[in-house]
């Protein structure tokens, strides 16, 4: 997910087009407004995060579609530009957003969201109702697979969930879990954790809520251990039971 506030739309389109040409049909491009605190740190916070995101996204999408673009906006100023090497397969483009304003912008632009970790099934379902059946919804979710001990997997993930429940940036996604001390329920609703069977069921629950794609985010520091396990055990189980 590229932060719109620190990307020029023309150069971003060039970068997206290059990756798409290298890996046609495999690249999923995301644009977000950027983390406000980080933007403050580097002196790049725009007056309106959403206006900036909208202008950069609209311009980048038009360029990827092969259009020649001229625009004089608050954040994007382009004069008769086009891609010399547009992608033969235009990549899927989504907005990396999480709150109500971001979801509404998805609706306005006809794009799907990439929802960050902390999205409860009810929030995914509400997002689906707003965006309709055609929108492609991608959901990142905390994950921890322990094949021999489902309860240990959930217990090891609880500190991550406990911290998230008090994060005001996640309030919209968490719903009534926000500022709750029910981290057991949090693990159940906000993660893919347990043995293979319980992880498969958690992914299916997210799909039933409206997710088209689920991206597993292992516990920080355990990625090198988890990725091979997920690939060897969880992916085949999902494919077999599809």
Describe this structure in words.
This protein has 242 residues and is α/β, with parallel strands linked by helices. It contains ten helices and nine strands. Helix content is 48%, strand content 17%. Strands 1, 2, 5, 6, 7, 8 and 9 form a seven-stranded parallel beta sheet that branches. A two-stranded antiparallel sheet has the order 3-4. A hairpin with a 4-residue loop joins strand 3 and strand 4. The protein starts with a strand and ends with a helix.
Map the helices and strands.
Layout: E1 2-3, H1 9-22, E2 28-32, H2 36-41, H3 49-64, E3 69-72, E4 77-81, E5 92-95, H4 100-109, E6 112-115, H5 121-131, E7 138-145, H6 150-165, H7 171-174, H8 183-190, E8 191-194, H9 196-209, E9 213-218, H10 223-240
Parallel strand pairs: 1-2, 2-5, 5-6, 6-7, 7-8, 7-9
Antiparallel strand pairs: 3-4
Mean pLDDT: 95
**Helix and strand succession?**
EHEHHEEEHEHEHHHEHEH
Contiguous runs where pLDDT drops below 50 for at least 5 residues: none
Number of separate strands: 9
Strand content: 15-25%
How far is it from the N-terminal to the C-terminal residue, by CA? 28 Å
Oligomerization state = single chain
- Tell me the major beta sheet: 7 strands, parallel
Helical fraction equals 40-55%
Q: Could you say which overall geometry the principal axes of the C-alpha atoms support?
A: globular
- The whole-angstrom Rg is 19 Å
Class by SSE composition: alpha/beta
Helix tally equals 10
Please give a handful of descriptors for the protein shown:
242 residues, 9 strands, two-stranded antiparallel sheet, seven-stranded parallel β-sheet, 10 helices, single chain, alpha/beta
């Amino acid at each position: 997910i590229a932060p719109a506030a620190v990307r020029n739309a023309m150069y971003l389109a060039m970068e997206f087009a290059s990756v798409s040409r290298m890996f046609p049909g495999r690249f999923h491009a995301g644009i977000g407004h950027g983390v406000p605190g980080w933007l403050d740190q580097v002196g790049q916070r725009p007056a309106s995060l959403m206006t900036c995101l909208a202008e950069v996204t609209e311009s980048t999408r038009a360029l990827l579609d092969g259009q020649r673009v001229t625009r004089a906006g608050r954040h994007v100023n382009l004069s008769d530009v086009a891609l010399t090497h547009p992608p033969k397969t235009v990549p899927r483009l989504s907005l990396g957003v999480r709150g109500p304003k971001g979801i509404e912008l998805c609706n306005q632009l006809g794009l799907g969201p990439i929802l960050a970790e902390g999205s409860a099934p009810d929030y995914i379902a509400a997002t689906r109702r707003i965006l309709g059946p055609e929108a492609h919804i991608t959901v990142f979710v905390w994950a921890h697979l322990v094949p021999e001990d489902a309860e240990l997997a959930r217990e090891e993930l609880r500190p991550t969930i406990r911290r998230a429940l008090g994060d005001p940036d996640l309030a919209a996604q968490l719903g009534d879990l926000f500022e709750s001390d029910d981290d057991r329920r949090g693990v159940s609703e906000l993660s893919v954790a347990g043995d293979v069977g319980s992880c498969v069921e958690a992914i299916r629950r997210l799909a039933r809520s409206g997710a088209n794609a689920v991206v597993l985010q292992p516990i920080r520091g355990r990625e090198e251990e988890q990725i091979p396990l997920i690939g060897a055990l969880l992916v085949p189980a999902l494919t077999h039971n599809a």
